[in-house]
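Example record

One chain of 187 residues, shown exactly as stored in the release files.
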Amino acid sequence: MSAPAPQPGPSDPSGPSGPSDSFDTDTPESHRPQPGGPSGAAEPVLPVTFRPTRTRIVLLTVGVVMFTVITVVALLLEKLGPGERASFILTALIFLGVLAMLSRPKVVADAGGVTVVNLTRTRRLEWAEILRVNLRPGDPWVFLDLSDGSSLPVLGIQPGIAKAHAIRDARALRALTESHGTGTEKN
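Predicted structure tokens for this chain:
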């Protein structure tokens, strides 16, 4: 009988400590481990984009299917007038638009800093503005502690249906922050 895998503890809010010695061969080149991050985590090659890929696929697929079904139903119902059909199709288009907006979040890191794209806002941060990258157990997404004392939610890294992917992305962003900015390890 094998021992259970170690679980994230309170001392490391991002998950188990240390990077994995292996990585998925389907992982894009920009996400593959690079030697020498200050925290020991894998540091991706810049520029790199982090986004909740599975969530995005589910949202966009559901949106397109809903739009198609509602549009087909509107066109097949003989008792509907042109205005009613148009309202069905407009409603389907609104649903698709909302789901497309929910699939928008991402984080783009480059040599100059980080661009955080959330649902309706985009914010550009220099590396020095980011003090810490946090993903604690139970958090719906990553939070960045900023030098102005505020905290910025980063919806582009969320553990929803891909927890391991989110933890890996949070560690990579943390390693980039520590090597390019002030980070938490520097005193």
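Notes: The first helix runs from residue 53 to 76.
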